[in-house]
Amino acid sequence: MTYEEYQRGQMFFDAQDYAEAGRILAPVVEAEPENRAAVELLGRAYFHSAQLGRAERTFRRLIELDPANGWAHEALGRTLERRGRAREALPYRKLARAMGTDPADEAAISVSAANLAG
Known about the structure:
By secondary structure, the chain is mostly helical. It has a single domain (3-113), classed as Serine Threonine Protein Phosphatase 5, Tetratricopeptide repeat, CATH 1.25.40. The chain is 71% helix and 0% strand. It has helices at residues 3-14, 18-31, 36-48, 52-65, 70-82, 86-98, 113-117. It is globular and about 35 Å long. Residues 114-118 have low confidence and may be disordered. Keywords: TPR repeat. TPR repeats lie at residues 36-69. This is Tetratricopeptide repeat protein.
């Protein structure tokens, strides 16, 4: 991944062009699948562009990379809820709460884990 491509994806995300951000970030994550910042931003872009299957897979990957990331558990829970799978979402949201992450509504997925850590 070039840092420039990640920044470009962030720019499109910030401009609320989530589909384009996802298109830019997908190859970045493919090239660097361990890059948590890129995986997170890609998941957020998919969530906001209603690509919920992709968002779910991406947030699951983020949890694999960082199991102690409460925000990732919350984001996955919200994604599952949007997909009509509230029962499946519940354990992820409860775990996020136990990790100290505040409950998120759909708009809160715009806030990154880095923002919540500060």
